Amino acid sequence: MSSVAALLGVCVIAAPAVRGATFSGSSSDITDFSNGSEVSTAGTLVDAVNLLNANVGGVGVSTTINGVLFKGTQPGSYHEGAESFANASFVYHGGDGYADSGLWSSGGAYDTLADSQLYGIDNGNVNVGDGYGVINLVPGQRYQLQVFMLDDRSGVSKTFPLQFQEAAFTGNFDELNPNTPAVEIGYIGGITIGGNGVHQANGEIATVNFVIDAGYNGLLVNTWDNGAINGMQLRAIPEPSTLALGGLAGLGLFLRKRQTKKA
Question: Whole-prediction pTM value?
Answer without folding.
Answer: 0.82
